[in-house]
């Protein structure tokens, strides 16, 4: 292990385990041959190792960032898949919201509406219940507007973010 949470210690992982994890990642289409992987995890993190093995098998370019990932660096690297800890996604979310809000002519009114709509949908999904048509229509419009602004800041290539080692803070995933 990398010693972040506890004292460093070794752990044996047989070759077959890495191959099986890489095959699972491939079969789930988490990585595709056209992707660009950005990993922000400690070098010894098993999820990072598994994604890197899958990347090598698929020929996917890998970029590893060992410092705090900031929005400008993310824009520069333009990955399609991001592998990071919850704290990295939470920090990027804060930076993204601040950047979008500063661009809003009315102080982020539209942004707050979009976020409220996304959280409303998340509530319906957690309940596993039917989403009323009026709510669905409102959410579709909100998501279209939000996605344009998010893609303008993160880049058009972002396809998926993989959060490891714990849950995201409420609202970050939406």
Please provide a written account of the structure:
The structure is a single chain. With 174 residues, the protein is α/β, with parallel strands linked by helices. It has six helices and four strands, in the order H-E-H-E-H-E-H-H-H-E. Strand 1, helix 2 and strand 2 form a beta-alpha-beta unit. It starts with 14 loop residues before the first helix and ends in an 11-residue tail after the last strand.
- Give the topology string: H per helix, E per strand: HEHEHEHHHE
Q: Helix share of residues?
A: 40-55%
Strand content: 5-15%
**How are strands sequenced across the largest beta sheet?**
2-1-3-4
Instruction: Please state the structural category.
Output: alpha/beta
The biggest beta sheet reads: 4 strands, parallel
Number of strands: 4
Query: In whole angstroms, how far apart are the ends?
Result: 31 Å
Annotation field: number of helices: 6
Average pLDDT? 81
Coarse morphology: globular
Secondary-structure map with pairings?
Blueprint lengths: L14 H13 L9 E3 L6 H13 L3 E3 L6 H7 L3 E4 L1 H18 L5 H19 L5 H22 L5 E4 L11
Parallel strand pairs: 1-2, 1-3, 3-4
Helix pairs in contact: 1-2, 5-6
Q: Which features characterize this protein?
A:
globular, 174 residues, 4-stranded parallel β-sheet, 53% helix, single chain, 6 helices, alpha/beta
Short description:
This protein is α/β, with parallel strands linked by helices. Helix content is 53%, strand content 8%.
